[in-house]
Structure formats: structure tokens, C-alpha cells
Amino acid sequence: MISNKVPSLIAAARVGSRNSLARSSLIAPRRSMVTKEERWTPETARNAASYIEGPNKVELANVVPNIEATWKSLSKEEQYGVFRQLEEVQRKDWKELSIDEKKAAYFVSFGPHGPRKPITTSGQGARTLAGVVGLIGATCVLFYGLRSQAPPPVKTMTKEWQEATNERALEMKQNPISGISSEGYKGKGHVQSA
Asked: Organism's domain of life (predicted)?
């Protein structure tokens, strides 16, 4: 009874995932660092047929042992052919696969190529840090250069003036609930200068 329902559940899940994928692609298209030249298209799949089977068939035995180094040098069609051949190999029992085949399958599926290609190069962090430190330094130089050319502070910013403003605020009973005229006020009032 359960075995009859499993295929229909799998088919429903596939249709649901396709619909949600279509919906998500309409709502927010995916962005990646993959260029058009790197993408596999239906045309790539048609052109790759001779690399999967035929006279130009890519031999997995030649590609698999050093796939990390050879992957970039393969054309899109050859890459697709290797991908399809590895898909077929993975349908067998995993205990029968060689270590190189398992590593190749992992690299093709999750390796640093295509949408998982690193956006930054090595040493990018040091260059970014140097740029940020340089800009902060330039900002400090500009700030202190402008400050040195500024006129002296206004007379209302002297400590004596601010203390006199406090006395005047007490006489006028300024802010009697929570401010300077309230009972038990312990703040500085209008005094801002040291």
C-alpha cells in the first residue's frame, strides 16, 4: 500500500519543486558571477552529445585523476560530457566507485567553478585593508587640516559663559520636572566644555 504511494509522492514533489523554482525565478532572478560563456545551455547539451558518446568521447580515466587542474582547460561541451558521464557512474553502487571518481563527482558538483567560483582573488583582504586604512588616514588629514584653518570657538562656548547660563536657568526655573531646576538634579546643566 505504501509502495504504491511513493512514486506519486515523488512525482508531486518534483512538480512542486519545479513550480517553486519557476516562481522564485520570476520573483527574484538569481545573480551569480557566472558569465554567459561559462553557462551550460540546452545548446551546450546538444553539442556535447559527441563528447558523451561517439568518436570524441571524453575518457573519464584521463580526466578524473586530476580533474581540479584540467577542468578549466576543458570546453563547455567537454565539461558537460564529463558531468553526464559522472552522473551515469554515480548510478552504480558507491562502494564500487574509485576514490578518484568520488572526488571528481564531488568536484563537479561542489567545486569552485561556475556559480561557486570565488569572487575575490587571494590577497584581496590585504588590499582592502590597505585601502580602508589609507582612506581613514586621508580623512583624518583632511579633518585636522580644516580644523586648523577654522576660526576660534565662539564666546558662548567658554566655561564661564556656560556656568552663567546655568545660574540664569536656575533663576528662570527652567525645566523644573527633570532638568536643571528639579529637586536633586546632579547633572552638569549647560556646561559642555571641560
From this structure: Eukaryota
Distance CA 124, CA 142 (A): 27
Tell me the HSE value of 79 on the side-chain side, using a 13 A CA sphere: 21
Amino acid sitting at position 193: S
Q: What is the pLDDT at residue 114?
A: 75
Tens of pLDDT, residue by residue over 144-185, are 999 999 998 787 788 889 899 999 999 999 888 888 888 889
The ranges assigned to domains in the chain are: 36-116, 151-183
Rounded CA separation 123/148 (Å): 38
Q: What is the pTM of this model?
A: 0.47
Question: What single-letter DSSP state applies at residue 173?
Answer: T
State the pLDDT at residue 113: 81
Q: What are phi and psi of 64, to 5 degrees?
A: -60, -45
Our CA dihedral for 80, 86, 91, 93, rounded to 10 degrees, sits at: -170
